[in-house]
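Write out the bound-state structure for adenosine monophosphate.
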Amino acid sequence: MIGLGIESTAHTFSCAIIKKTGKNGKILSDVRKIYRPPNGEGIHPREAARHHIENSSQVLSDCLDEAKINVNDLDLVSYAAGPGLGPCLRVGAVVARSLASYYKIPIYPVNHAIGHIELGKLLTGAKNPLVLLVSGGHTMLLAFLNKQWRVFGETLDITLGQLLDQFGRSMGFASPCGKNIETLANNSSNYIPLPYSVKGNDVSFSGLLSATKSIPSRNKEDACFSLQETAFAMVSEAVERALSFTRKKELLIVGGVAANKRLSEMLKEVCRRHSCKFFVSPQKYAGDCGSQICWTGLLENQNKKGVPLEDTFVTQSWRLDSVIINY
Ligand code: AMP
Ligand code: MG
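---
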């Protein structure tokens, strides 16, 4: 079974092709173009959508070339139907619908967050993990029970990715800027005390963002170091409590922030204390990409023959814990 997956929820337009044989998936190609707003600014949904429209046909043809397959070889197409920015989501949906109707192949709307988790499981081999999903759009702790992902904790305001991106933008970087912050943080070990806010299993980052922004700009590296230490310690506390509660023996980190080495270092220590196996998405596939959508579409195909074209919706706020999983 050969699938094409299309991701366009926010800054990334990506197409990927995966060949599924039994329970295994082999990524044949994963091509991406990332919209970069001007320095200091966030994503403008209309501009991001314009970027996706302008790049969609090139990304699709590069993806087919790299996989060395013809568009007629595709058995199905899937696209990220939400959550995400409406104008961006519509671009991926239009490309997917056009392919499905012209080539008469089944089409699958995929929940973007579930895509992160399923691809993480495929690439790491985690079987039944507690999942920490940390990205631009999510900060959630999840475990699977009775056909649904259940939320054990989440952010009460902004996400971990937004915290890093908004602080990075205040320093003049272009979003996404988690990587810039990680690089600056690596040059400091001087911790400046910052507000730490864990409420039960939930976290709150907005006070931390304001306090970090008030650190004088000559202390950039110390600010980045202290921001990472505080935010990641908060997340680690929530993970530790959820591990004790769920007694899961695996932890899997997915989402763009999973690329951060310091976050992994702290969570490995938590796992060691709980005799729990630690898994993290490979850096290349941690953030938004077509592979996450493609693989989830292929899984859905196991017992669903696509959805009618008239039901190929996009939903800006589609929570992953509302999705019933039948594969
Ligand atoms: P996603 O929405 O899954 O593509 O994730 C994007 C988020 O990941 C953005 O907020 C980025 O700033 C963040 N990110 C990417 N690389 C890193 C990194 N090395 N450290 C921390 N955050 C990162
Ligand atoms: Mg994402």
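---
DSSP finds ten helices and twelve strands in the chain.
The chain has two domains: 2-111+289-319, 117-285.
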